[in-house]
Amino acid sequence: MDIEIIAVGGYNEVGRNMTAVRCGKEIVIFDMGLRLDQVMIHEDADVENMHSLDLIEMKAIPDDTIMNAVEGSVKAIVCSHGHLDHIGAIPKLAHRYNAPIISTPYTTELIRQQIAGEQKFGVNNKLFALRAGQRYTISPHLTLEFVRSQHSIIDTVFPVLHTPRGAIVYADDFKLDRTPVLGEPPDFARLRQIGKEGVLALIVESVNVADSGRCPSEKIARDLVRDTITSYEDDKNAIFVSTFSSHISRIKTIAECAHEIGRKPVLLGRSMERYCSAAEQLKLVGFPESLSMFGNRRTVDRTLRRIMKTGKDKFVPIVTGHQGEAGAILTRIVMGDTPFKLEKGDKILFSAKVIPNPMNYGQRYLVEARAKMAGVRIFDDLHVSGHAYKEDHYEFLHLLNPQHVIPSHGDIGMTGEYAKFAEEIGYTFGNDLHILRNGQNVLIK
């Protein structure tokens, strides 16, 4: 059976991830993501009215027109987790394939919401929710298995495609967190077993492979957030916290710390409400009873007016805007576009890193500079990454012992860094280690 790996998107950049695996005449697509910064959008992304061809031209979604030249039919679209750079292009591209979309229950719910909001295309692909530890028969030759993983969004998995020639493991976005705040640690026993059964190819993210050591556990971020928030138990000023609205375990930590110091946690922002209410409905998280959430702009402003009136010291607003995005709650507050007035001694806690591109750095700088002019105290980098570091990758490769390695999810600097790392431990470039660019493919011999 011919096995071919086709790099559709995410091999020239971080984002718009999409990889196709052809096994004989059957094709399985992994992820269909958006590249957020290309359309100057972040978690409040609003591309519902845009055409896929325009988005492809803007390099915002994968150029899947290359799939027209691939012989065979797509049997399944598989998503590893619910971040927009992995599922954001589904409303624009999935309808071209007569195949079910398979993902974990939380990811499936986020995909359902994405499809419901789509204005341009009708997406009628069947959605199938598969839990970690379960299998799905794609065809007599191909079986899909979801192996439990950890990342900065809940319900993340390693999709494993079992073929007659061995397993193909797709590991785009993971960390080997042994002490997660939500969910179980990755299923190391199953990964080891799959390694013994035989892994033909590993498609693996390369975002943080240049960082030495191990990626700190989410438990470390919880301690950083708790130390900061609980130290202001008797403070009368405002405490705002901004983090990724999809980072449910971090939001849970912030909400619990607010509750601990006698303040009510308030989630503000459309994406905050969307991600958190979906997680709550699926019973994947339990927030403190005192928590409330508001997404609609008018309701958000009304809530901010109420906080001013009732007393800033009674609430901890958890808000969007850590990248300084225009229109996000924190940006609007800092720019004076809401009823909330920042005053000397108020605090803004950033529990997120700036996503590295010049636009984000500029926007974030502007937000911080304006806040500081009002006398606001800034707390930065109360955060840990969701991506594996070098030693995690080392352990991961030794668990799976793949015959072939394909670095993905990164620009040439990142995939090149992964290649350098893999060569150090015995892989040979061009033989069993393959660097691909968008639009390229490799036949696994």
Chain-averaged pLDDT? 94
Taking the sheet with the most strands, its summary is:
7 strands, mixed
The Cα radius of gyration reads 22 Å
Number of strands: 19
Tell me what the CATH architecture of the largest domain is. 4-Layer Sandwich
CATH class of the largest domain: Alpha Beta
What level of helicity do the residues show? Answer: 25-40%
The CATH topology name of the largest domain reads Metallo-beta-lactamase, Chain A
List keywords for this structure.
single chain, 445 residues, alpha/beta, Metallo-beta-lactamase, Chain A, Rossmann fold, 7-stranded mixed β-sheet, 6-stranded mixed β-sheet, 13 helices, 30% helix, globular
Can you describe what's shown?
By secondary structure, the protein is α/β, with parallel strands linked by helices. The chain has two domains: 3-214 and 386-444, Ribonuclease Z/Hydroxyacylglutathione hydrolase-like (Metallo-beta-lactamase, Chain A), CATH 3.60.15; 218-379, Rossmann fold. The protein has 13 helices and 19 strands. It has helices at residues 52-57, 84-87, 90-93, 105-117, 188-197, 218-230, 248-260, 270-281, 297-310, 329-334, 358-373, 390-400, 412-424; strands at 3-9, 18-23, 26-30, 73-78, 101-103, 127-129, 135-137, 143-148, 157-163, 166-171, 199-205, 239-242, 264-268, 292-294, 315-319, 347-350, 377-379, 404-408, 441-444. A seven-stranded mixed β-sheet has the order 6-5-4-3-2-1-19. A six-stranded mixed β-sheet has the order 7-8-9-10-11-18. α6 (218-230) packs parallel to α7 (248-260).
